[in-house]
Amino acid sequence: SPRFLARRPKRWPELVRLLGRMAREVAPDAVFTDVREQSAEKHVGFMALFRDGRARDTVAIWWAFFMCLLAVYSAFSWLPAMLTSEGLSVSLAGYGLSAYNLGGVIGALLCALAIARFGSRGPLLLCCAGGAASAWVMLGVGATQHTGLLIAGLGLHGLFVNAVQSTMYALCAYVYPTGVRATGTASALAFGRVGAILSAFAGAVVITAGGAAGYLTMLGAAMALVLIALAVVGRHIPKRAGQQRI
How far apart are CA 107 and CA 96, in angstroms? Predict the structure, then answer.
């Protein structure tokens, strides 16, 4: 990355060429100083995730990854079982999971484009709200009476949920300075994987106790909690207009 090269004077010519490719022309003998990350260089390591005002963002991002991956893997693991328990055939249940995944591909692309233009706060919070609302709206859709509508709803839900999950990595890359960026992202993903593991148990308990209604309620609640967590994050990616960050 440009910040990685900026900290290595011997590689400044490479950085000059890279910036030129990014339409940011600089003189060949330019001297680079990364003011934003000078303080972070003093605190490289796991505890740096909680220094310089990053503690709140770190905890919020961990919680967002935890709940979002719980929702994602609850769908991967239990969506077909939920649909068949409501009377649909195995093939139709497969269509439901396919719609969820297809929606996720579209959502990830659209949310990435939106973040590049409008920053991350608005698009991520909107997708979280959409993920919660789409799950709760499906509570009133009968699986056997309105199968097509239910499958379309699952596609829409997958669009919102996977849009959030896929683009939170970009948020991590912005929140954490270069020296601890890998540590910050990896720790968030580790907490997310704990949520993914728990989804195997949560899905079984919820479907057994509450059927499809309980399952959809859980998915919506998980995304509502992701919304709260991402709203707490203070260092969101800014809008593109007037932005010169590299």
Answer: 16
